[in-house]
Inverse folding.
């Protein structure tokens, strides 16, 4: 699928202050439907802060964020998820004492509606919905390649599978944009390669991906476009090859006078 | 209940049905067996055990499922009990029927659940425990003092002569004759409580094993991740408080009708702690475990009463006061369980099977509320 030119997700002049600290200043970027958009930058550049603004965990101090035209500012995290942005976390946040399958089933919460009465009486509709939640969750586990782990507790998964589970859980919310915060952090090269293939497959199946990543090799090969943040401002944006040559990017990573 | 059977029999319908029928018969005959073997008092203790099963299952929703440490649960019990007492006694001369009051009491307790839940949404752990503890005490102190300027609760004296449960025009407390068998008040209440306990267990199981139950578990495990997955943490928490309170309210109404008398003394902090212990000792979040915890903690202290007479028989005088011994052994029991079975006496099978020494890959668990994460 070729990325379209219409932006699916746009941020205009997004700033975030914590007291006197300006974590983000005037960040603007546009993510097109169907692309993999990378967000890179040195530690403390504001990448995760931007993600938190994007997903409703933080409210930007100024600026607006839109998802296909709809303004997301002021929405709580659960409402943002309902609009179609799902995320993973840098320091994996699974429901540790629930099974792998249950973790993904929780992701279906926002796309299902049974209430207390439905749960207690378990009428035909509630049963059908529950069966649907389960089968969708099982399919997603297969999709990310951890189907055989369905019955285990999430906390007993090996590290790489935890990452996959987090992605499956996020996909269960049927997002239009999947936001991944350092999906390959701590993985070895072969695990990284496997995850890369998974991400490409998710993109090819019609999702739009935004990812924060430190692994430059992964970013260069995987992303259609990237933006570079440094000290809370965007210093470069474009296809990976171009950004790689950018003088300011080299300075941000290696210090002034390098290259 | 199937989990009681050894695994290899679970697929055999004949064995499963025999087990159900056996359990049903046992529960039906239990008051007669107990009455015959141990005396009428013990039938009453059985009744109380079931009352506590209901309360513990209510608290289990809040503490076990949703992970919200509530030390003021007895407040909802008190609300249910006093609502029944006020609307079915000579206190105001109002005598509404039990069957109408039960749902009203449950509903009012629900409202109190939400009232308590709303201001505590941003709290967790110790802070939540302290606020709920305060709430429980506030309710008790209100009940203690609402006898002036207008006498609503009759203060520390409590409300007396509360209407018993009636079936037709027969009072359950007086005992009734069914099919030629004389049932005492303790027996009739046993069957009433058994019916309602089974209903409560059914509701608790259904809730836990549903979309709602998963949402509760998710906010218990990681509130921020739950919110990011589209769970409205505010509503889901309030729902947990409301459902827990509902069970408490039903228990309260039954208590008032059974005892015929309520006073603030029945609703102290110690009572909240007892119910919490039932949940924790039995196996937090695991319904059969919680039932076991409630039954054990109701029955065992009563058994200790025999220690006094036993000492007289053996040594000729009472050396250790049974009342002191109760708390002592209770504390010792708590410590032993926490040391040797921190997951409870009967934890959920998944958790028991998976409870191994920490492995290095274990998920790092964040314990922060959504509100804290947003600062």
């Amino acid at each position: 699928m070729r990325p379209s030119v219409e932006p699916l997700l746009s941020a205009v002049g997004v700033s975030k202050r914590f007291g006197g600290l300006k974590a983000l200043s005037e960040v603007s970027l546009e993510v097109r439907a169907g692309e993999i958009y990378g967000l890179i930058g040195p530690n403390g550049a504001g990448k995760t802060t931007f993600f938190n603004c994007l997903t409703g965990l933080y409210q930007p101090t100024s600026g607006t964020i839109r998802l296909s035209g709809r303004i997301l500012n002021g929405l709580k995290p659960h409402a943002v998820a309902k609009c179609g942005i799902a995320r993973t976390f840098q320091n994996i946040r699974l429901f540790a004492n629930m099974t792998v399958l249950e973790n993904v089933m929780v992701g279906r919460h926002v796309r299902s509606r049974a209430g207390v009465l439905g749960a207690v009486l378990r009428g035909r509709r509630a049963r059908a919905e529950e069966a649907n939640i389960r089968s969708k969750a099982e399919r997603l586990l297969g999709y990310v390649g951890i189907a055989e782990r369905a019955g285990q507790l999430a906390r007993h998964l090996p590290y790489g599978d935890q990452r996959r589970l987090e992605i499956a859980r996020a996909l269960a919310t049927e997002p239009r944009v999947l936001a991944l915060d350092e999906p390959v952090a701590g993985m070895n090269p072969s695990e990284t390669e496997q995850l890369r293939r998974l991400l490409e497959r998710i993109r090819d199946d019609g999702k739009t991906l935004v990812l924060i990543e430190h692994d430059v090799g992964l970013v260069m090969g995987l992303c259609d476009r990237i933006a570079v943040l440094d000290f809370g401002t965007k210093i470069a944006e474009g296809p990976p090859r171009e950004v790689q040559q950018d003088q300011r990017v080299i300075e941000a990573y290696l210090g002034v006078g390098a290259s | 209940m199937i989990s009681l059977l050894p695994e290899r029999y679970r697929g055999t319908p004949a064995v499963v049905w025999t087990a159900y029928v056996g359990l049903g018969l046992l529960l039906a005959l239990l008051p007669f067996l107990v009455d015959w073997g141990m005396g009428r008092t013990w039938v009453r203790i059985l009744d109380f055990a079931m009352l506590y099963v209901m309360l513990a299952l209510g608290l289990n929703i809040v503490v076990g499922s949703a992970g919200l440490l509530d030390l003021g649960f007895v407040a909802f019990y008190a609300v249910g009990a006093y609502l029944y007492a006020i609307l079915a006694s000579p206190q105001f001369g109002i005598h509404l029927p039990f069957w109408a009051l039960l749902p009203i009491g449950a509903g009012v307790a629900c409202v109190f659940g939400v009232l308590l839940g709303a201001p505590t949404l941003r709290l967790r752990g110790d802070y939540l425990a302290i606020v709920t503890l305060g709430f429980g005490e506030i309710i008790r102190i209100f009940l203690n003092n609402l006898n002036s300027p207008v006498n609503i609760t009759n203060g520390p004296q409590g409300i007396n002569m509360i209407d018993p449960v009636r079936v037709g025009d027969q009072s359950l407390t007086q005992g009734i004759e069914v099919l030629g068998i004389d049932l005492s008040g303790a027996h009739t209440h046993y069957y009433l409580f058994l019916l309602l306990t089974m209903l409560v267990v059914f509701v608790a199981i259904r809730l836990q094993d549903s979309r709602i139950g998963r949402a509760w578990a998710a906010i218990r495990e990681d509130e921020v991740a739950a919110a990011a997955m589209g769970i409205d943490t505010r509503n889901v928490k309030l729902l947990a408080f409301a459902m827990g309170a509902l069970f408490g309210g039903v228990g309260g109404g039954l208590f008032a009708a059974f005892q015929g008398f309520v006073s603030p003394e029945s609703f102290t902090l110690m009572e909240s702690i007892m119910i919490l212990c039932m949940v924790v000792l039995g196996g937090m979040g695991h319904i059969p475990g919680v039932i076991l915890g409630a039954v054990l903690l109701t029955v065992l202290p009563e058994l200790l009463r025999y220690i006094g007479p036993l000492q007289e028989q053996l040594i000729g005088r009472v050396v250790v006061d049974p009342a002191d011994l109760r708390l002592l052994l209770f504390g010792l029991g708590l410590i032993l369980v926490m040391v040797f079975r921190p997951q409870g006496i009967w934890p959920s099978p998944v958790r028991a099977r998976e409870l191994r020494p920490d492995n290095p890959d274990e998920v790092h668990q964040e314990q922060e509320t959504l509100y804290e994460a947003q600062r």
About this structure: Chain B touches chain A through 40 residues (CB under 8 Å). The longest strand of chain B covers residues 176-178. Residues 38-271 of chain B form one domain.
